[in-house]
Amino acid sequence: MDKRPVIKILELFGGIGAPRKALVNLGIDHKSIDYVEIQENRVRAYNALYDHEHKSQSVIGWDLKPDILVHGSPCQDNSRAQYSSNINNSMKKRGAERGSGTRSSLMHETIKIICNMGEWKPKVVIWENVVGVLDKKTIPAFNDYLQSMTELGYSNSFEVLDARDFSVPQARERVFCVSMLDGFFDFGSLEKKPMRHIDDFLEKNVTGPQYMITIPSMLNKIEEFNPVKPDDVYKRRLNVIDSHCWTITERQDRCPNAGVIRSKTDAKYRYLTEREVWRLMGFDDEDFDSVLKRFPSKPGKRNSTLYALAGNSIVVPILEAIFEQLINGVRSDGLIEESNGQLRLTC
Questions:
Q1: Would you identify the CATH topology of the domain 7-194+315-345?
Q2: pLDDT at 174 over 90
Q3: What are the residues whose beta carbons fall under 8 Å from the beta carbon of 6, sequence distance 6 or more?
């Protein structure tokens, strides 16, 4: 049997390398022809995970030839959380309009990069972002992106995917857009898996004082003590985790967050630990320990870097499902290497 060709991927806004982790988990032979990330701490984490020595670099003006390009441009200016936290000012600042200068507008740099590739284009482009890109104020920029991809010869499909539908007990909805030169990606064919219970991801006997919620202002925000009333539409509360947590973000010591854990033995509440949030993003303990060596925790202190690295990533099992469908599809010869060295998708 012929060996499946090596798939070349390009990771833009690469974070801690969730696409790479998904391919590793699937056992797919691949090569990351480059990794582009400007945040220095994310680069250090990526290097720890994948034994590289990349340096931080801007996404602007890149010229490479991958088979699959994955980008998850900054989401802050599309975020509903940012909008609701500053209802008077954020309407002027949100969005990813071309030339707006916002962090989220960097999504259009991907278009420039593909244009610079000339005749060689990635067969697949995968983009991930917050569901806020579909809101009234921001969807014109998203439609602009889709139109640009169409003009480059791609067929686009997008869907809001929830991590809970891919075995992960985290209520995390994100927009995934898959653009293909050959064919059309069918999100309906993704293999979904039953959600596992949060208990499978929690550490046992967490007693560190840094994780215990003792500040009165935070305790008062726990929903069990102070429920949100119908007219308190903008009031925020800390939800108590039962079967799943809520969206993991850069910080857990704020309101709202991914939720708090109620002790089963006494009336105490705690934050999720750094290791737990990494597990809930689809990374294993070996990954976490490798990065922990690069960013050691201080005794009695929560490690803000490890929380932020996880919160900015993509849920790995969702990417696994997308890659599995792209590469395996309904045919066993999903990718064929042509005479010019480029791969052709047949799924």
A1: Rossmann fold (3.40.50)
A2: yes
A3: 29, 30, 31
- Domain limits, the chain: 7-194+315-345, 198-311
Q: Provide the token pair at 8.
A: 């070349």
The topology (CATH level 3) of 198-311 is DNA Methylase; Chain A, domain 2 (3.90.120)
Show the tokens assigned to 79.
């975020």
Give whole-number Cα distances, 297 to 48, 271, 294, 302, 305, in Å: 16, 16, 10, 7, 9
* The predicted structure's pLDDT at residue 227: 79
| pLDDT digits 0-9 by tens, 279-338 | 999 999 999 999 999 999 999 999 999 999 999 999 999 999 999 999 876 433 445 455
Given a contact cutoff of 8 angstroms between Cβ atoms, the answer to whether 126 and 322 are in contact is yes
Q: Which residues lie across from 36 on neighbouring strands?
A: 12
User: How far is Cα 48 from Cα 33, in angstroms, rounded to an integer?
Assistant: 17
CA distance 23 to 20: 5
The highest-confidence range among 67-76, 199-208, 235-244, by mean pLDDT, is: 199-208
Q: What is the DSSP letter of 189?
A: G
Strands 170-171 and 245-246: parallel
Nearest residue to 280 via CA among 248, 309, 302: 248
pTM as predicted = 0.86
- φ, ψ at 260 (rounded to 5°): -120, 155
Closest by CA to 63, choosing from 19, 12, 101, 117, is 117
